[in-house]
Structures are given as C-alpha cells and as structure tokens.
Amino acid sequence: MKKIRKSISVYKIKLIAILGVFIFHSCVFSQKEEISINKTPYSKEELRILQDLNKITKTEKPRNYKNIVTLNKVANYIKKELSKVCDTVSFQSYKVENNIYKNVIASIGTQHEERIVIGAHYDVFGDSDGADDNASGVAGLLELARLLSENKELKYRIDFVAFTLEEPPFFRTESMGSFIHAKSLFDKNVPVKGMICLEMIGYYSTKENSQDYPIKEMKYMYGTKGDFLTVVQEKEAKHFSNQITESMKSQKRIKTVSFKGSSSVQGVDFSDHLNYWKFNYDAIMVTNTAFFRNKNYHTSKDKLETLDIRKMNLVIQELYRSIISLD
Q1: Residue 200: its H or E element
Q2: C-alpha 44: how far from chain center
Q3: From CA 135, how far away is CA 140, in angstroms rounded?
Q4: Same domain, 31 and 49
Q5: Do residues 18 and 46 both lie within one domain?
C-alpha cells in the first residue's frame, strides 16, 4: 500500500512538473504571439502624439465655429499642454458675430527679439472629427513645443500658435485666427524670421493612384503614390523658407518634396500661411497635400484611425532638426 501511495505521489509530482513546463511554454508563446502582433510598439513621442490626437478629436460635439464650448475645451487643453514646456502662454481673444473666439499663443526663447512662428488651426469644418484636418497639425505643434523647449541653444524666440476659425465660412476673411495674429505682429513691427504652417500631416498611402494634383502633369514629377510630405513655398521664397525646405528634404526621414507657386495654383494658399504672406512674412506650409490625397477631407470619415502616427512623428522630427539648424 505504501509503495502504491509512493508511486501515486511520484506520478503527481511528474504531472505537476509537466503541467508547469506546459504553462511556462504557453506563457512564453503567448508573449511571443503578442510581440509578433505589435512588432514595433509606439515610442514615447508617438504615444504623446496619439494622446494629443485623442484629446483633440474625441469631443462630445465637433469643434466647429458653432460649438464654442467645444472649441474652448480644446483651446484649454492646448494651453495646458503648452504651459508645461513654454515660458509664456496666453489666449488671443477676439469677437466675431457677437461670439468670442481664441487663438492660443505660447513662447520659448523669449530673451530673443526676432522670432519664428509655428502655427496650426484647431477648428474643423462641419461635423467632422478633423483628425487629419487639422488635429494632426495641432499634435505636431504640441510635440514640437516639447522638443524645442529642451534645446537651450535656440537663436530665436519661437511662438507656437493654435489658430481658430481657419475653416469656412471664415476662410479668406479677416476673422481667421491667423489673420488676427499676423496683423498683430505687423502692427507692432515685430521682427519675424519666418512662419511654419502645419496643415494635415497625418495621412499617407502607398497605393498607386492615391495621389492627385492641381496640375495633372505633376504626377510625372512627384509620382502617383500619396507617400510623401510636401513643403509649399511662395513663388518668391526667401532665405528662411529655402533653408527649412532644403534641410527637411536632405534628412530623408520621410520622403519630402517641395513646391513653389502662387495662389493661382489650387491649394497653394489653402491654409493659415496665406495671412503671413499678406503681410510679407516668409512662410511655408508643411502638408500631405490635403484633399489631393485624403478623400476623407471635410467628411465624417476623417478619423484618428486613418492616420499614420509613425510617419507623423518622422515629419515632426524632420521639422525639429531643421529648426534647430537654422543660421
């Protein structure tokens, strides 16, 4: 009887050992399986970008000009994030049709007189989430503020400006937040080295014929795949915009092309940089070409899930290195 009990005990021990090995291997397999699903987890920078996009797009009501409470909530979030890294942060409030709208302005390197303006609009058209147009630009603005605030050798003051009322029905009017801001600089005779407008930097495609152009012959120069970033310059571009453009193209972090043109070419002045051109400031637009690629433009399909966070981060990194290398 003792021998039988001993045999049973030995059997139990072996069984437990076998089960333990099985469980161990199962756990290891599960971990490997999980890693294979997510081979390259998001970096800390990409996670910050994703968090910003979530906060900006996941609102109870769309952040259009009719929903002022929503616009203010988004403006408050932008201000809070910029307050963490900037020397000064404030609202630039102004009245349109008896309503108060706000730009958010934050600065670093305030000991310098000459400044660089980096801007992006946070309002949307209609009932869209506006993930690419233009939460992507605002997320880029916030991340650039974080990165640039860590650099102690900046040669210029940098103003980060989140604009309101870029979208219709205010586009091309003096009610645009960027017009209000550009005019305020001009009126005070503030020395501005240049302006960078972030307008839709989150949507990319490697499919053939995913890219359209205002002039069809452009496809022979730039290709038919929407896998690149564009730096748009005014026809008579100056030193600042030329230097930023060439620096971005040379880094090759993401395929980057440039285009110089006037407002006679559709899309060239379709964002906030147009108001800096009006006051003769050197300004560029950094964009994925908007509706020439992203067919979700100004529709309910412009959602966070359609964006490429990693490519967005490459755009931001490319811009960051171009800004700190300015002479």
Answers
A1: none
A2: 15
A3: 8
A4: no
A5: no
What would the pLDDT profile of 130-184 be if each residue is shown by its tens digit?
Answer: 999 999 999 999 999 999 999 989 999 999 999 999 999 999 999 999 999 999 9
153 and 278, same domain (yes or no): yes
Number of separate domains in the chain: 2
87-104 pLDDT tens trace: 999 999 999 999 999 999
Residue whose C-alpha is closest to residue 326's, from 252, 248, 259: 248
**Per-residue pLDDT at 96:** 98
For residue 67, what are the domain limits? 40-324
- The sheet carrying 192-199 orders its strands as 88-96, 99-108, 157-163, 115-121, 192-199, 283-287, 229-234, 256-261
pLDDT digits (tens, 9 = 90+) for 45-103: 999 999 999 999 999 999 999 999 999 999 999 999 999 999 999 999 999 999 999 99
Residues 44 and 33 occupy one common structural domain: no
pTM over 0.85: yes
Are residues 35 and 49 both part of a single domain?
no
- One domain, residues 12 and 66: no
Residues 3 and 129 in one domain: no
Q: How many CA atoms lie within 13 A of 218 on its CB side?
A: 18
With cut-offs at 50, 70 and 90, classify the pLDDT of residue 237. Answer: confident
Rounded distance, CA 136 to CA 122, Å?
Answer: 9
> In 3D, which of 250, 257, 82, 234 has the Cα closest to residue 158?
82
Residue type, 41: P
The CATH number assigned to the domain holding 177 equals 3.40.630.10
